[in-house]
Amino acid sequence: MSHFSTRLTTWQREHGRHHLPWQVADGYRVWLSEIMLQQTQVTTVLDYYPRFLERFPTLADLAAAPLDDVLALWSGLGYYTRARNLHACAQAVVRDFGGQFPPDPALITTLPGIGRSTAAAIAAFSYGTRAAILDGNVKRVLTRWAGIEGFPGVKAIENQLWTLAEALLPEPNSDKDIATTAIKAHTQGLMDLGATICTPKNPTCLTCPLSSDCQARMSGRQAELPTKKPKKTIPEKSTVMVLLRNTQGEILLERRPPTGIWGGLWSLPEVSTTLSAAEIMDQRFGLAIELEPALPEFIHVFTHYRLTITPQPAYLIGSSALREDQTAWFSTSAALAAGIPTPLRKIIHSI
Predict the structure, then answer these.
(1) Distance of alpha carbon 114 from its chain centroid, rounded?
(2) Residue in 34, 250, 254, 279 annotated catalytic
(3) Could you tell me which CATH number the domain at 236-350 has?
(4) What is the CATH code for 4-219?
(5) Mapped to the 3 state alphabet, what secondary structure does 95-126 carry?
(6) CATH 1.10.340.30: which residues of the chain?
(7) 34 is catalytic
(8) Could you tell me the mean pLDDT of each successive run of 10 residues in the chain, 351 residues long?
């Protein structure tokens, strides 16, 4: 164990990733990348990240922006709770910490949307704080290297991994510069190793700096570790989305509740069946509509269920006056520029 970090940091300095745009000692940029990279591939984040910084160059700019602007830029990244927490966290950092993340990971975890591993990454990269991370890539590296069996999502296994991650940190050093450099290289090395060498499938063990004592490699269990999550039947749900247009060709959208799927985004009104669509639109919005033939249904897959969506076009009869604050008419271009869920983009593009 005493040689783990030395081998890792030596490898990272020579073979790791050094040109990612968020690899700077700036808490705002590190935090932004960490949140975006949750549940999202690096290649996708490389597209969204610069656009976010162009619109919100500083944490204060993000905190001062309307939530709608944040959701609109986030549209397509998914897991929209991250965007709402991002906005709330920026405001909390401005309010409680003078616009700068504190160096203590324990304080960082008190902020919205930030867990233990993300807090450690922010503190390590921004201040050189000696703190362990444990994201998905790191869990894979450690379970293989130490031969830890059991699904890492189980609390007992996760606690075992946290203990190991902390034990493998670089030794403390009285020279602050040396200590800071070591913790940054160690933290980045774990991320890089999991992303480029110790991959979920077909890991390139021959080039791994930890291969000499990796338990998974020595026992030929690379494909078995980490232990996979027990499979569950994915629930099936269905909905009808009413694509209502007025005489100007504008689309009716309503803002979804702040929590739950697509929380806070603009979306099409939903009904249970096409047969009740006209009646429900009259009851809920006071709008008289005429239904058109339904568009082909399609499936959108969430983490916990599959949703079958039937787009139901309709046109307005009579007044377009709205009686609810959380509804509005959008031109097609304005709808596409707003914070809307990915399935709605597909529906709009289809027409």
Answers:
(1) 12
(2) 34
(3) 3.90.79.10
(4) 1.10.340.30
(5) HHHCCCCCCCHHHHCCCCCCCHHHHHHHHHHH
(6) 4-219
(7) yes
(8) 88 95 91 94 94 97 96 91 96 97 97 97 96 96 97 96 97 93 97 96 96 96 95 91 94 92 93 82 89 93 92 92 87 93 91 79
